[in-house]
Structures are given as C-alpha cells and as structure tokens.
Design brief:
The two termini are 60 Å apart. By secondary structure, the protein is mostly helical. It folds into two domains: 59-210, no CATH class; 227-343 and 378-420 and 435-545, no CATH class. It has helices at residues 2-15, 23-37, 43-57, 61-86, 98-108, 113-119, 125-144, 146-152, 174-210, 216-220, 226-253, 267-279, 283-343, 383-408, 413-502, 508-513, 525-545. The radius of gyration is 43 Å and the shape is flat. Residues 1-17 form the signal peptide.
Length: 549
C-alpha cells in the first residue's frame, strides 16, 4: 500500500506540476522567438517547437526521462545480444553469411554493432578501438544532448542553431553542434559504410577466420591444442578413478575401519571401556567397532559422491569438446570440397550433415549424508543422575531419622541399621536403573549406527556401477575425440599449403573477380600430389567422423 501511495503521488506530481517554465525552457523559447523574427525558421516550426518545449518542461520526472531509460536499455541489450551472437564465430560450421551481419547491422549499426559482431573474438586492434569508440560516443552524445533531442525531435533543423541554453547538461553550447557532427560521421561510417561494405567485410572474415581456424598455427607448429590438454586431464582422472574404486571395493569387502581419532588410549580409558562393556553385556564394545566401520563407509561415500560430481563435470566438458570436433569436421570437409571444386569440375554433390552426438546421462544415486550425531564415548553411565538420586534418598532417610529423634528423644541400633539398609537399597536400585538406561541407550545407538551402515553399503552398491558406466562412456567418447582431433591436425597440415596457393590473402580485387579456376599451378606435379593427399585425408576424415558414440 505504501508503494502504491508513492506511485500515485509521483503520478499526481507529473500531472499537476508547477506551470512556471524553467530557466532553460524560457531561454529556449526566447531563442526560437529571435529565430522567427529573423525569418530563419517558419511560423509552423516555431509553434511546433515552442509547444514541444512547454510540454516537456511541464512533465514530471518519469514523463521527462522515460525515453532516456529506454534508449540506454536498448543500447545495453543490443550490446549483450551481439556479444552472445559473436561467441559462435570462434567455431563456425559454415561460412558466415552476409545476411546475418546485415541483421546485426539493422538493429545496432549506429554504435558499430556489426563491427563488434565481426571482430569481437579476433585480434583486430583497429576494429576493437573503433567499436568501443563508436559505442562510447553514441552514449555520450545521447546523454549530453538528451534535452535538446526531446525538445526538437520532430524539428531536426533546429539542431543547427546553438546558444547558451543547455549549460546544465553540457560543458559548452558548442557541444550540441559538435555532437551533430559526431552523429553525422558515425552515421556515414557505421550505417552507410556498413550497408556498402558488409559483403566485402564478410568475405575478408571468412577468408581469415573461417578458412583459417584460430588453432591452425598451433597445429602447424606441433603444439598441443585445447582438446589435447583436456584429454590429458580426462585420462588422469579416469586412471585415478579406477584406482580409487579398487580401493573402496577392498575396504568394503575386507571390513576396514577408521578408528575414532579422539579415542582415549590411556590405562584409565581402557578400564572404563572394560567395565562399560560388562555393564552393557558387550554392546558398548560392539558399538565402538560399528561406529569405526561407519566412519570408514562414510568416508567411502563422500569419496564416491565427489567422484560422481567430478565425472559428471568431465562428461559435460567431453561432450562440448566432441561437438566442437564435429563442427570442425563439418567445416574442414566443407573447405576441402570448396577447394577441390575450384580445380576439378566433377565432384560429389552429396550434402554432408553436421553430426550431433547423444549426450550420455547415467543414472546415479542421490547424495547421502552418513554418520551420527554422537560418539561411542558419549554414551556412558550417568554418574550425575546416579549421585543426585542417591543424595535425594539419603536426604530423605536422614530427615526420617531426625523426625524420630525429635519425637522419641532416642534412636536404637536397629534404627541405624534400618537406615543403612535403606541407603544401600537406594544405591543398588539407582545403580541398576542407570545401568539399564546405559544398556538401552547403547542398544538404540547400535540400531541407528547399523541402519546408517546398511544405507552406506546400499549407496556404495549403486554408486560404483554408476561410476563404472560413466567410465565406459567417457572412454568411448574420448576415443572418438582423439581420432577426430588427429584427423583435424592431419587435415590442417594437408589443407594449409594449398589454401595459401589458391586463395592467398583476401584483397578487394580478389573479392571482385574471385579465384581463377584454370591456372598453370594446378598442372604441376607437386600441386597434384598435394591435392591427392588432401583428398585421401578428407576421405579418411569423413569415415572417422561417421563414427558414433
């Protein structure tokens, strides 16, 4: 209700604002009157602009600045969308389409969104500087000239006139004129330039970043790539996992234990455990052993739970790398067909498909928390309760003796013997009661611990086969990943020399005329050998790529 009241108050303030014009609005209207008197603007333009200034000045905060928030949100959202879209450019399966770039240009060209989209993930210093410069300039021009935009949005000719009117929102009145110039140049370079040159920029992009993957240089220099490093980590994980499963199986089958680290190993501690065991008919000793066993099984469950989480993480990562390898295979076979098609007239017209592997999801048991909220040493003879009960009984006996002494004036030997017998019975009864309570607590604790042991064994029984199923799936997928990675390396080594000879560096002339199909180079023996090698590599690559997991 409070929030609703505040909103109503704000709305009322928007509609019932003081009708007195601000100094800025009055100066603006004075400027318009002077321009009208000098016949520099028409009466229609004057009336429209004057009405806009007065309407804007009489609005409340939200009425004035709603468009400011909308525009800033639009710029930020388009920046985020363009950034997300550019992520795909690192590992493309097909050449980048100029129409995709035109789509980005359509909603973000003024601040250079299409330039950001093309070069965001690649080291292009000039493009990086220009895209951020465009983005910052658009924001600054809009923020510093917001009032002028709201005054004259439907009379743009008035932006050419500038006086000392906007001092509250900019350093000098000349900034409005400079801002108009900045927008003009941004429009010319980003919007008009993008409209004209996007096809050429797309051609350059595909030549530099589609035909030449960012890992090609590492492959040609014999360095490891991301997939190699991941496979090394995965292999180490599987190896350690195998050893850990073997150890856990041994611990479970051979009744290993983990002793309580706080166990009292002193002589007195041993004596207490001995008498406690006698009092509970051996149950306290059994409880200690069962808790040591549960401690071991709980540790095994924690290890298995961690192994499952790590293996699931590796499974997700392996799937991502496998899909990247499938994309690379599709791209490389496309490039092979493109290059061979320039030299040979007859090539297969069969369209290849981008293979998508099935994500392996293994059913695993839910995580369990093992252990109990007590230690075996916590369950012991309740000495405080025993002494309190005996003390109360003794106090009652002494009070009875005192009362008899007051009444009879003398106590016999038999009275003292009777009091002693009563005290002894009290000690015996309370001692037996506490021993029975100790026995009951120990038995109940054993039941709880045994239940936890059974649950832990059941979890281990389900977790180990699940992890082993994951291991088998990971090994199969990793074999395909390694094979595809090796084929990718072989392809790059076979393709790169031919690419440099046929396509070379992208130039505007090559963009206009394309690649000649009949060249003397194609007839040389070395070139034909290299081409035949590429064809053989591509054929084997295609066979490996057809392998499914």
């Amino acid at each position: 209700m409070y929030l609703l009241g505040v909103l109503l108050l704000l709305l009322c303030s928007c509609s019932s604002a003081d009708k007195t014009l601000s100094e800025k609005a009055e100066k603006t209207i004075t400027m318009l009157e002077n321009l009208q008197k000098e016949n520099r603007i028409s009466d229609v333009t004057f009336q429209k602009a004057r009405e806009n200034v007065m309407k804007y000045d009489h609005r409340g905060f939200f009425g004035k600045y709603w468009f400011w928030f909308v525009f800033i949100a639009y710029v930020i959202i388009t920046l985020v969308v363009t950034y997300v879209e550019s992520e795909e450019n690192l590992d493309r399966a097909k050449p980048l389409s100029k129409w995709k770039v035109y789509l980005v240009w359509l909603y973000s060209s003024l601040w250079g969104g299409h330039i950001f989209f093309l070069w965001n993930k690649h080291n292009n210093t000039l493009a990086s500087i220009w895209k951020w410069l465009s983005f910052i300039m658009v924001l600054l021009v809009f923020i510093f000239n917001y009032t002028a935009i709201m005054y004259f949005y439907d009379t743009p000719g008035l932006f050419a006139f500038y006086v000392t009117t906007w001092s509250w929102s900019m350093p000098s009145s000349y900034l409005l004129n400079y801002s108009v110039e900045v927008v003009r140049y941004l429009f010319l370079i980003n919007v008009v330039g993008g409209l004209i040159f996007i096809p050429y920029w797309t051609y350059v992009y595909n030549a530099r970043y589609f035909r030449q993957h960012y890992e090609n240089d590492k492959i040609l220099s014999g360095k490891s790539v991301q997939a190699d490093r991941f496979y090394n980590r995965l292999s180490a994980h599987i190896k350690s996992l195998t050893q850990e499963l073997e150890d856990i199986n041994k611990y479970v089958e051979e009744d290993y234990i983990i002793e309580d680290p706080d166990k009292d190993h002193s002589l007195w501690g041993g004596v207490k455990r001995f008498f406690k065991s006698i009092a509970t008919l051996g149950n306290s000793s059994k409880l200690e052993k069962e808790m040591d066993r549960l401690r071991l099984l709980g540790s095994c469950c924690d290890d298995l739970s961690r192994d499952i989480s790590e293996t699931e993480m590796y499974n997700d990562e392996l799937y991502d790398y496998l899909q990247k390898s499938r994309v690379a295979a599709y791209r490389n076979l496309y490039l092979s067909k493109e290059l061979i098609g320039i030299i040979k007239t007859k090539i297969s017209s069969e369209q290849q498909k981008l293979l998508v592997d099935e994500f392996k999801l293994i059913e695993v048991p839910a995580n369990m928390a093992t252990g109990v909220a007590f230690r075996a040493s916590d369950i012991q003879f309740n000495g405080d309760n025993f002494l309190s009960s005996v003390g109360m009984d003794m106090d009652s006996t002494l009070q009875n003796l005192g009362s008899r002494l007051e009444k009879e004036g003398n106590l016999s030997k038999g009275d003292f013997i009777a009091a002693g017998v009563e005290a002894g019975l009290s000690i015996a009864i309370n001692g037996i009661a506490n021993i029975v309570d100790l026995y009951s607590q120990t038995k109940e604790a054993r039941r709880e611990v045994q239940q936890q042991i059974n649950e832990a064994l059941e979890y281990i029984k389900k977790a180990i086969p699940a992890i082993q199923s994951y291991q088998a799936a990971l090994l199969r997928q990793s074999e395909v990943l390694v094979a595809l990675t090796q084929c990718n390396k072989a392809f790059v080594c076979a393709y790169e020399p031919l690419r440099k000879q046929i396509f070379g560096e992208p130039t505007f002339w090559k963009y206009l005329v394309g690649v000649k199909k009949k060249q003397e180079l194609f007839k040389t023996t070395d070139f034909r050998k290299d081409l035949q090698h590429l064809i053989l590599v591509s054929s084997e690559y295609n066979k490996v790529n057809q392998s499914k997991v």
